Protein: Nitrogen regulatory IIA protein
Amino acid sequence: MKKIRKAIDSYIDQIEQKWKALPDYRQRLLTKIFFAVYLLLSVFVLLHIWLKPTNTQKILPGTSIKGVPSEPDIKKNPGIHSHQKTLK
Structure:
């Protein structure tokens, strides 16, 4: 675990040295580009969620699911309740 932590720390130090070696105008430009990409991605995700089609059926809590039989048909699938036959 210590080796992994040391490797991560040295990698972060290398990246930080490369960043500090860049001129100030280049750092500001890259920061603006990263922020613009982040902002566009955030707006895209929010619009995608907001404009998502609402025709999907939602099951509200407290309601039953329609189309599910209340009792299973044992004649069609005898394996469902085969353990109950042995209990009797």
The chain has a mean pLDDT of 81. The two ends are 58 Å apart (CA to CA).
